[in-house]
């Protein structure tokens, strides 16, 4: 059992040592993500001041146009992950098409990410995050991303909140690290994370209730009449992180306006579903089918999602 306080780099190397045939590629891939997240975290901390500096300087001291934080985050991830040489292909919420980095031609992996989830919350200083999902490269085309959620070899998120945390899994348990600003190290703070079997919190945007189907409406009515409390931050990373720690259910159902819901399968729902299952929870779509068994057909495909503690998801499944 890794000890509390172990730094992320050592943790990644210790994990690699468990696989004698490992080449170190995944370790380099993960440490490149760590570097990207640290850069993004440092700029998120400054976001509140950007407007002030922005008024004083339309460009920063390098003479560069002050970028929106989500655009900046995307550029950091693309640059650092491309330079790592480990990723043959990159899909991003911020990019219409998959990109194939020049330095990634020998890369064993492909990655999909949401560089800054919840970016509308930046200006009100509410937690935001980065979500990622890694697969093995196979044919070397966009189709490699359409292999289904069970083929993810790693998934994780960073949350930029009261502290910055990095939570990830490679399928051998779920572990969380908290950034120590003084040392700049991510230190193991949440070893072997397990979601509570049940939790009395539901996390839905209830304003969409009128557009939900009858099953979803009945489910919410049941939760409310059973004494559950409501928490909805509006940043998936923050709502899922709280659900992992406190239990309960997070959902973004389909509605009359959005037939497939709002959240994107490749870089929001698949990684969070792998994470929740790894912690002992469940993740299903609006019909009650396992999210990770879905095989997507488009890069930016959306899917309705209900994820969280076993008890709350089984309650959803029992609603006729
Ligand atoms: P709504 C943020 O914009 C996001 O993509 C997720 O992080 C979040 O769960 C959801 O949308 C919130 O959407 O429609 O409730 O504001």
- Overall mean confidence score, pLDDT: 93
Please compute the radius of gyration using only Cα atoms. Answer: 19 Å
The global form is globular
Q: So, the CATH homologous superfamily of the largest domain?
A: Fructose-1,6-Bisphosphatase, subunit A, domain 1
The count of DSSP E runs of length 2 or more, i.e. the number of strands, is: 12
How does the helix and strand content classify structurally? alpha+beta
Describe what is shown at a glance.
With 320 residues, this protein is α+β, with helices and mostly antiparallel strands.
Question: What is the fold's blueprint, element by element?
Answer:
Blueprint: H1 8-17, H2 25-56, H3 69-84, E1 87-92, E2 109-117, E3 128-136, E4 154-160, E5 164-169, E6 174-180, E7 185-190, E8 201-203, H4 214-225, E9 229-230, H5 236-246, E10 249-252, H6 265-278, E11 282-284, E12 305-308, H7 310-318
Parallel strand pairs: 1-2, 8-9, 8-10
Antiparallel strand pairs: 2-3, 3-4, 4-5, 5-6, 6-7, 10-12, 11-12
Helix pairs in contact: 1-2, 2-3
Which labels suit this protein?
320 residues; alpha+beta; Fructose-1,6-Bisphosphatase, Chain A, domain 1; D-Maltodextrin-Binding Protein, domain 2; seven-stranded mixed sheet; 7 helices; 32% helix; binds 6-O-phosphono-alpha-D-fructofuranose
Folded structure, characterized:
The chain folds into two domains: 8-190, Fructose-1,6-Bisphosphatase, Chain A, domain 1 (2-Layer Sandwich); 201-318, 3-Layer(aba) Sandwich (D-Maltodextrin-Binding Protein, domain 2), CATH 3.40.190.80. It has a seven-stranded mixed β-sheet with strand order 1-2-3-4-5-6-7, sandwiched between helices. Helix 2 (25-56) packs antiparallel against helix 3. The longest helix is centred in the N-terminal third of the chain and has 32 residues, at 25-56. The protein starts with 7 loop residues before the first helix and ends with a helix. Mean pLDDT is 93; it is low at 54-63. By secondary structure, it is α+β, with helices and mostly antiparallel strands. It is built from seven helices and twelve strands. The chain binds 6-O-phosphono-alpha-D-fructofuranose (P6P). 6-O-phosphono-alpha-D-fructofuranose is lined by residues 117-118, 120, 205, 234-236, 239, 252, 262.
């Amino acid at each position: 059992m890794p000890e509390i306080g172990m730094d992320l780099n050592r943790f990644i190397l210790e994990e690699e040592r468990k696989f004698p045939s490992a080449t170190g590629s995944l370790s380099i891939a993960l440490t490149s993500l760590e570097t990207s997240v640290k850069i993004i975290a440092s700029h998120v901390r400054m976001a509140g001041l950007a407007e002030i500096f922005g008024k004083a300087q339309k460009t920063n001291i390098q003479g560069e146009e002050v970028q929106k934080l989500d655009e900046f985050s995307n550029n950091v991830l693309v640059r650092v992950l491309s330079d790592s040489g480990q990723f043959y292909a990159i899909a991003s919420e911020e990019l219409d098409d998959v990109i194939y980095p020049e330095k990634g031609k020998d890369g064993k992996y492909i990655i999909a990410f949401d560089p800054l989830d919840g970016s509308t919350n930046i200006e009100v200083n509410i937690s935001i995050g980065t979500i990622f999902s890694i697969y093995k490269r196979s044919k070397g085309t966009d189709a490699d991303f359409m292999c289904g959620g069970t083929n993810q070899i790693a998934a994780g998120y960073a949350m930029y909140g009261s502290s910055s945390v990095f939570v990830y899994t490679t399928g051998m348990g779920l572990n969380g690290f908290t950034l120590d600003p003084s040392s700049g190290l991510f230190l193991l703070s949440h070893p072997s994370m397990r979601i509570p079997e049940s939790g009395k919190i539901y996390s839905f945007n209830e304003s969409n209730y009128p557009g939900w189907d009858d099953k979803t409406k009945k489910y919410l009515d049941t939760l409310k009449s059973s004494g559950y409390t409501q928490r909805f931050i509006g940043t998936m990373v923050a709502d899922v992180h709280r659900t992992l720690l406190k239990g309960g259910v997070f959902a973004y159902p389909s509605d009359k306006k959005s037939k497939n819901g709002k959240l994107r399968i490749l870089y929001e729902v698949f990684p969070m579903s792998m994470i929740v299952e790894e912690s002992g929870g469940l993740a299903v779509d609006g019909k009650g089918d396992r999210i990770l068994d879905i095989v997507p057909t488009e890069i930016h495909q959306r899917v309705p999602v209900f994820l969280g503690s076993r008890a709350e998801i089984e309650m959803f499944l029992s609603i006729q």
